[in-house]
Write a structure and sequence with these properties.
The complex is a heterodimer. Chain A is of the alpha+beta class. Chain A contains four helices and 16 strands. In chain A, the strands form two sheets. Chain A has an eight-stranded antiparallel β-barrel. Chain A is elongated and about 70 Å long. The two termini of chain A are 40 Å apart. Chain B has a two-stranded antiparallel ribbon. Chain B is mainly alpha-helical. The N terminus of chain B is likely disordered. Chain B has 23 helices and four strands. In chain B, 48% of the residues lie in helices and 5% in strands. In chain B, helix 2 packs parallel to helix 4, helix 3 packs antiparallel against helix 4 and helix 5 crosses helix 8. Classes of the chains: A alpha+beta, B mainly alpha.
């Protein structure tokens, strides 16, 4: 059952309101495949475009710091390898008397800071039901360690054929909205990660239950510590904590994004992302209406 | 316009006259009290007129009884109980509709939060406790939820749909939790679904397994669900879980912080103070004073760091009873944990105390009265409204707070301070005692007789350095979460110098 007003009505309310303030108000015109056109009162126009980086592997180092089942065991060095590509969505000028701005991103100023009026970044990866309504990658992620004794309990042991991570939790430092206190908290991860040993030295990992409440990003990758739970040999549930180092993955991603920055085209935009874009634009219009001195399209 | 004058006058007369019992109060005052406590508002003019008629017809008791039932069945009462529970769970308290309307002009995050805080499985459970006169145990055992999903563009927490997705795979969420990639909703729109889990479901435990509880009591690898465990102990067993105080002169503040969930020290600060080789688990006796309770209970949440896992994690409900008896109940998962808690006498006593605080206010609850209320609570199947209705028939419900005498006031202040001492010491090992326990500092005479009382009062005097007005106190220690100010030191010093009088002003030791 739905309670609130339909999005279309919501948009029209904002559009009506937007026309009453000074400055370049705009209308939002829906186009095919989730795209939109922004039509400004002064005749300028912009449309959404997409770009996608080339598919790559993103390596993340994971150093174990603690294991509640094997407290005194030597801590292994592990790696997580995430396959994927990043999709970017922006609104680019299509009609503008200042021709130098054509095909450039539409920017607005909020409290004096320049921002893109549309800026969606979506990481497309394995088991990727969380992303944007596009087909997930068929390839899987990989997880490898230099020692698997922490899983088997036997020092120097080889990789077990099979194991599952019951949960994967990645921490990020944010403000808890219930307490207004900023602190580390688990905000992304997955449940029931299937692990299959391949090549005798690494796991192929898959999960249908990726979760994240921090927006699209490299799945399973967090700036804070990562906790994994799994069943130890005796069936006891164990927890191992790792520190991740994603600097290399981030550099690869940044370089790829930079490289793809000029290749905007009319790719598919899912309904989820299209909705997010509309909500953001409405928020901008709302701010323009309520605080015109703080917000303006450049 | 409503005429409140008679009530204002009645209240004025009451406050100036001291304590009143129900039989001494006019029906009008009783109606006022019932309406305000149960619904949060004054009775209407029509109700007062009807009461006046009932008084004239000598049917006022029947009228008040009917009104009590009507109020208990009202939405306002359900919302008021919901707010009380929000406060008990230390959640942001829900806004009134008026405040919520004002917030519409605020940013999207605030709007989203308002929507979320009104539409989530935990608040729905809180509401139904009174609305459906449910057993209070359902806070720990309910298997029925109304799960909500609110389309949000910005992240403010989990939705119920995403949170429960591992147990109900077809719940569609689009905020990144098990999202199927399609988005059926626009911002601000709300979906809900009524869910009935099997009684055998091992992972569903009323309030404990809701997204809002998890959002409030977040988890980290270092914390290992101790925040959640501490909340369970505080809310359901009235164990405030203060940090243990090292009996040594140890200055291990950072270790204490690990088990000290509400100290205000952030994980980030904590991590910077820990070196890599340091053990994060306190296996020393002082640390274990809390760890032996927090860790086994926290383990039941182990597989659910962010969302609820369908894989239960076995743990234990472990704590010590007041008489020193150790409780150590193995539980197969969160549902078993919830059930086990409801079977503990400490749980029943704790919940009765919550009701007492809500409906009788700051009046003293004596041990005998508490026993009687526990019996009444159980006899009524622990049903929320049935017990509240019983409370409204008790004299204490209508007893307005009489001004305390100076002695009573001082005694109360001392007891508040000693309760803080008690929170820390109750689980500590007392090397000097045969049974290894510290006496309850809030039960007088401390230690059970005058000799022991004298011994403990002398120790308090020395440990707090009262001779020097608390200049170099050893208690509370630097690791404790609280400090004594000059005023508090003077209150305790004065109390001891006056012979540590009890609540009736009778000295318990020679000054």
């Amino acid at each position: 059952m739905r309670f609130a007003m339909p999005l279309g009505l919501l948009v029209s309310v904002f559009l009506t309101a937007a026309s009453s303030f000074a400055g370049p108000a705009f209308q939002i015109v829906p186009l095919e495949n989730g795209h939109i056109r922004l039509v400004f009162e002064d005749g300028r126009e912009a449309e959404t475009f997409t770009t996608e980086t080339a598919p790559q592997q993103f390596p993340v180092k994971m150093e174990m710091t603690e294991n509640i089942c094997h407290v005194d065991q030597e801590k292994p060095h592990c790696s997580l390898i995430i396959p994927g590509s990043q999709i970017g969505v922006k609104a680019l000028w299509t009609k503008n008397p200042d021709t130098s701005k054509l095909k450039k991103s539409v920017e607005y100023s909020l409290y004096g800071t320049k921002l893109d009026i549309v800026s969606e970044q979506i990481f497309r990866s394995f088991g990727d039901r969380q992303s944007i309504g596009i087909e997930p990658w068929k390839s899987t992620a990989h997880f490898a360690c230099d020692d698997y004794a922490w899983l088997t309990g036997i020092p120097g042991d080889t990789i077990p054929k099979w194991n599952n991570f019951l949960s994967w939790g990645g921490e990020i430092n944010v403000t808890n909205f219930e307490t207004n206190v900023s602190d580390n908290m688990t905000l992304l991860g997955a449940l029931n990660i299937r692990m299959t040993a391949i090549y005798g030295r690494m796991f192929q990992i898959e999960s249908d239950q990726l979760n994240s409440i921090v927006g699209p990003s490299l799945p399973l990758v967090s700036s804070g510590p990562t906790s994994l739970t799994y069943r130890g040999q005796d069936g006891e549930i164990c927890q191992a904590i790792f520190n991740q180092d994603a600097s290399k993955a981030i550099k690869i991603l940044k370089d790829a994004v930079k490289e793809s920055a000029d290749r905007y085209e009319k790719g598919f935009i899912s309904k989820k992302v299209a909705d997010d874009i509309l909500v953001n634009l409405n928020e901008i219009l709302n701010r323009m209406k309520n605080s015109p001195e703080q917000v303006r399209v450049l | 316009m409503r005429n409140h004058f008679p009530f204002a006058l009645a209240l004025l007369l009451l406050t100036s006259a001291g304590a009143f019992a129900a039989e001494g109060l006019s029906p009008a005052v009783q109606l006022n009290r019932l309406s305000r406590v149960l619904r949060g508002e004054q009775p209407s003019e029509a109700e007062r007129n009807l009461l006046a008629e009932a008084v004239a017809n000598k049917t006022a008791p029947a009228f008040l009884n009917a009104k009590t039932k009507e109020y208990l069945a009202s939405e306002q009462h359900a919302y008021k109980m919901s707010t009380r529970l929000e406060e008990l769970f230390r959640l942001k308290t829900n806004e009134t509709p008026v405040l919520a309307a004002l917030k519409e002009k605020e940013d999207a995050d605030s709007r989203n939060y308002s929507l979320y805080s009104r539409n989530n499985a935990l608040n729905d459970l809180f509401y139904r406790m009174a609305r459906e006169n449910q057993s209070w145990d359902n806070l720990l055992t309910a298997k029925t939820y109304r799960a909500f999903y609110i389309r949000r563009n910005r992240t403010i927490g989990l939705s119920d749909y995403g949170f429960l997705g591992a147990l109900v795979p077809d719940l569609i969420s689009t905020d990144g939790i098990y999202g199927d990639g399609t988005s059926p909703l626009s911002e601000g729109e709300i979906l809900f679904r009524d869910l009935q889990f099997s009684p055998q479901e091992k992972q569903i435990a009323g309030a404990l397994t809701t997204s809002r509880f998890f959002n409030r009591y977040v988890n980290t690898g270092l914390n290992k669900n101790r925040k959640r465990a501490a909340a369970v102990f505080r809310i359901f067993l009235c164990d405030s879980m203060s940090a243990a105080v090292p009996s040594s002169e140890g200055k291990d503040d950072h270790i204490l912080d690990i088990m000290f969930p509400h100290s205000g020290v952030t994980e980030e600060q904590l991590r910077t103070t820990l070196n890599a080789t340091e053990k994060l688990h306190g296996d020393r006796p002082d640390c274990m004073a809390c760890h032996y309770k927090l860790d086994p209970l926290g383990k039941t949440f182990l597989t659910s760091p962010l969302v609820l896992s369908n894989i239960p994690s076995p743990g234990h409900l472990s704590y010590k009873r007041d008489n020193g008896e150790k409780v150590n109940i193995p539980v197969s998962g969160l549902a078993a944990l919830g059930t086990a808690i409801t079977q503990q006498p400490e749980y029943v006593r704790c919940q009765v105390r919550h009701f007492w605080n809500w409906f009788m206010g700051s009046q003293t609850l004596t041990p005998d009265r508490e026993k009687q209320l526990i019996s009444e609570f159980n006899q009524r199947g622990r049903r929320t409204n049935d017990f509240i209705q019983y409370l409204t028939t008790q004299n204490e419900f209508y007893t307005l707070n009489a001004p305390l005498t100076e002695d009573q006031l001082r005694t109360r202040q001392v007891k508040v301070l000693l309760q803080k001492c008690q929170n820390c010491h109750k689980d500590q090992l007392n090397d000097e005692a045969e049974d290894g326990k510290f006496p309850d500092f809030t039960v007088w005479p401390i230690g059970g007789n005058q000799t022991e009382m004298k011994h403990w009062v002398d120790r308090i005097y020395k440990k707090m350095d009262l001779e020097n007005d608390g200049e170099n106190p050893r208690m509370p220690p630097v690791e404790a979460s609280w400090r004594t100010g000059f005023k508090e030191v003077q209150v305790v010093k004065d109390w001891i110098q006056r012979g540590a009088p009890d609540e009736n002003g009778k000295p318990q030791v020679k000054p």
